[in-house]
Amino acid sequence: MEGERILIDSLNRRFRVKVPVGLSETPPNLRIAKASKPWRIYFRMLGTVLPAFFLMYTSLFMVMGAVELEPILVLSSALCSLPLVFLIFRLHRPRLIHVRLAVPDVNGSEAHALSEGGSLRTPVKTSLSRFLMKDDSILDMPPSRQLWAIFAVIVSIGVILTVLLLQSTTEIVGKSLFILLAIPLWLIGFSLPVLAWWGTSTTLLGLPTRRRDAESWLIAGMASAFPAIIFNSLVAPELIPSSLADWSAQLSLLAIGAPLCEEIFKALAVAIFLPSIKGPKQGFQIGFTVGLGFALIENLQYIGASLFGGPISTTMTILVRGIGSIPAHAVWTAISGTAIGWMATDKKFKARMSWRAQSLTIRAIDIAERAGIDADGDGDLSGFDGARPTLEEAIDSASAEQSDFENSWFLIDPRTGTPTNPVHTTKTNLEGFSVTYDKGAGAIKAAASLSPKKFSLALVLAIAGHSFWNGSSFLSYHAPTEWLGMSEAEGVLVMLAWTLILIVSVLIVARRLLSGIQNLDSDF
């Protein structure tokens, strides 16, 4: 019989053995349920940022070794980088899911052989098919209120430790508790606010998002910190005139060098995803997430350094960066991302960019194969064997381009077994993941005024916002103490008051921008 084979043993006994069914094409319009595990994304994020942080510094040492012609430093840095790169790729390697589908069939069987051994028995006759599909499960985030509540608890613990240290009778207890809680405070303090802002923005935007896409945006933001730290550490200091006073040089680095390079590199990280961006709404989402990825790396460093200042320094750093610096980084990059999203609505522009990228790839394969390297793995050295569309053909095909996102995944609550949709809080149709919004002309106008359609103007606006934050933060302490003759305590109070004003301003801008973007047409 088909799908069976006969085995004969040494005693001439015949055994009928079923053969496992082969792989087939994935059925169209298939929907896959997956148990909701919202905290898994947090641990994946932690597992990425920790090796990425150390990889950033090994990369910096590698560049320094190359600049100073120190081969030992370059080699040792490269060797230290390899396991870190392996860990990151291991965590985010593409995943395939092996699906078996048993459908009732009177002509089928009640027993089916499995490819890994053993068998599957069904209570009725079924036909079995199996196939591989990509893990395109949607982004599953913990509830925002839960995240912010934990953040409030972390800040409260820091305040309690500070109070204990300020009392002579409880100082020893405060120090002991701080030593025990320093590492948990650091890990949760630098990462949880990023997840909270990520969850808040995802919920408010209401865009169904693949988890692997969202993680790639976050990783791109982390990666953009690599060239930024190299520029800030090695290039920018060399551009500052040596005749400047120390405070002027520091102000120049903070208000000019850092904003300029960081916003450019973050915008470039967003631009990498231009072929997949459908409009300004998705551009905002990608820009916001890239900014969070950059802030995650930066946050790890700042809060780690603040531990040496005790619970007062740690608590203030967690609080200020959690509700101020993190959304600021995200908003500035979202402004650039929204402009890139507007660029993406021009399908001819996208087609030209994609065609140029494809042409460069084809040219590289041709050059490699002329040099005797089988670059495309087809077993010959004839150059690129695929289609070579002209620019006009690429533009024509782009006009008929449709979204490739298939809503084949939904989440189920593991406790109740019912479908759940943590992404949307607005009116939502779970079956099609369609989202409807009440249009608000005022909100859309507000978004347009904060995020220009022209990319160059948006980038200048992002750099200006970043520059104002850094420069004014530095001057808020330096000016009172150095120029106005205030005491150090008075200078700290002025700096804290100004920081509060900056935080409130960024939150207002973030709210207006999110409100406007949220009310854009869902096609964007």
Notes on the protein architecture:
It is a single chain. The protein has 524 residues and is mainly alpha-helical. The protein folds into two domains: 1-30 and 97-133, no CATH class; 32-85 and 136-162 and 189-368 and 407-413 and 432-524, no CATH class. 62% of the residues lie in helices and 11% in strands. A hairpin with a 5-residue loop joins strand 1 (4-8) and strand 2 (14-18). The two termini are 55 Å apart.
Concise overview:
With 524 residues, the chain is mostly helical. It has two domains: 1-30 and 97-133, no CATH class; 32-85 and 136-162 and 189-368 and 407-413 and 432-524, no CATH class.
List keywords for this structure.
single chain, mainly alpha, two-stranded antiparallel sheet, globular, 3-stranded mixed sheet, 524 residues
List the helices and strands and how they pair.
Layout: E1 4-8, E2 14-18, E3 32-35, H1 40-67, H2 71-91, E4 96-113, E5 119-134, H3 144-166, H4 171-205, H5 211-239, H6 246-271, H7 280-306, H8 310-344, H9 347-370, H10 391-398, E6 409-412, E7 419-420, E8 428-429, E9 434-435, H11 441-450, H12 455-483, H13 488-518
Parallel strand pairs: 3-6
Antiparallel strand pairs: 1-2, 4-5, 6-7, 8-9
Helix pairs in contact: 1-2, 1-5, 1-7, 3-4, 3-8, 4-7, 4-8, 5-6, 5-7, 6-7, 6-8, 6-12, 7-8, 8-12, 8-13, 9-10, 11-13, 12-13
